[in-house]
Amino acid sequence: MIQEGLRARSRKLVMEMPRPARDVERLAPYDAVSSLSAIKSLPKGTVPLKLDWNESSIPPSPRVIEAITGFLSNGHHLNWYPELGAPKVRAALSTYTGVRPDSILVTNGSDDALDLVCRTYLEPGDDVVVVWPTYGHFLIYVKARGVQPRLALPEDPYAVPTATILDTLRDDTKLVYIPSPNNPTGTVTPPADIAALCRAFPATLFLVDEAYYEFCGVTSAPLVAACPNLVVTRTFSKCFGIAGLRVGYLMTGPVIMENLRKLYNPKSVNALAQVGAVAALADVDSREAYVAQVRAGRDLLGHELRRRGAEVRVTQANYVLVRVRDPQGLVGALESVGVFVRDRSRMEGFAGWVRFTVGTLSQMHDLIERMDVLLETRPDLLASFVP
Ligand SMILES: Cc1ncc(COP(=O)(O)O)c(C=O)c1O
User: What CA–CA distance (Å, rounded) separates 91 from 336?
Assistant: First the structure.
């Protein structure tokens, strides 16, 4: 009986497939390309220099590994759900940031925080302004809500973007995305500008992405106590060395927090990530030593590349930009010696630029040595960009 009914209906529906939401159907898949498989197939003995995704270039503090290994000695920590809402991470983050625990939400990477804000606040017809060029993944979260973001594109991509944001912002703009330092330009938006924008446009949500905060030390986090329309996001993927565990967080005032909590999944930060994040925060010396290495490393790399004739931008984050005539050629040549960097030259307004994640001083010396070997036979690799 059921079989007959199913046969009759499936004939009728044979050409139809379940359709995704209209706004998702229109999206192109996010074209993230990982170098991990290329790294795995490197010849034996080649030490990879993974400098393409701005992760920490070294493993986390041994205290993180110890904490996770100890935690795994009780198998129940895997068959039980994690602690809801990551309370220990929140408490430790409150000490680290100076922000009240109830103003902090721990998420599955800061990507998850950005997505949560978009899912909670955006609907078709909303106006969203995004400082550009920037972290492209954010656009997916916006477009998935049926919103076509408007790009605030400053004439000089290295200028503080506040004036361009003001020019682009409308009175009814729902959300403005301001990464600071911005990826890839490295621009830092002063907290005083953020506070002024929040006060002038109380119906607009200002989303300040501080994924690279630790490398520059400038933050808008203390403003969340006074600016109810501000959200600040951060991550454990950069200076804490646990990008693979996926932990991020956001800070905001009580009204936005109450709305975000309606969609927030308190189980979304896994048990190992929670243990790893607490241990990473506790090892202040490791973090400070790594940040100091990166700060010295970016100056060293900038200096050495300039000495070899390249056009260079040293940012306040953990990356340095190099503008060359043949970005793909440079990326490919470096790959042949086990160095992975990111071609950003196809971003609008960013022709010619290649981004190098900065690691420790010894890694940067290693990078320069490998580059010099290449330059012996390919002196054109750092040749100037021609518009
Ligand atoms: C500006 C910016 N925001 C967010 C992220 C994502 O960080 P997470 O690993 O915490 O999801 C990145 C990653 O590169 C980034 O550059």
Answer: 45
Give me 152's structure tokens: 């605030």
Atom of ligand 1 nearest to the CA of 55: 14
Cα-to-centroid distance, 235 and ligand 1 (Å): 7
pTM: 0.95
**Fold classification of 36-58+285-379 (topology level):** Aspartate Aminotransferase, domain 1 (3.90.1150)
pLDDT of residue 104: 98
CATH topology of domain 62-282: Aspartate Aminotransferase; domain 2 (3.40.640)
Tell me how far the alpha carbon of residue 114 lies from the centroid of ligand 1, in angstroms.
Answer: 9
Rounded Cα gap, residues 244 and 264, in angstroms: 21
**Number of the ligand 1 atom closest to the C-alpha atom of 54:** 14
Spatial distance between the Cα atoms of 107 and 250, rounded to a whole number of angstroms: 8
Q: Of 110, 342, 355, which is best to mutate to test ligand 1, by the most ligand atoms within 8 angstroms of its C-beta?
A: 110
pLDDT in tens, 163-207: 999 999 999 999 999 999 999 999 999 999 999 999 999 999 999
- 35, 89, 107, 111, best to mutate for ligand 1 pocket (most atoms within 8 Å of CB): 111
At 12 the pLDDT is 62
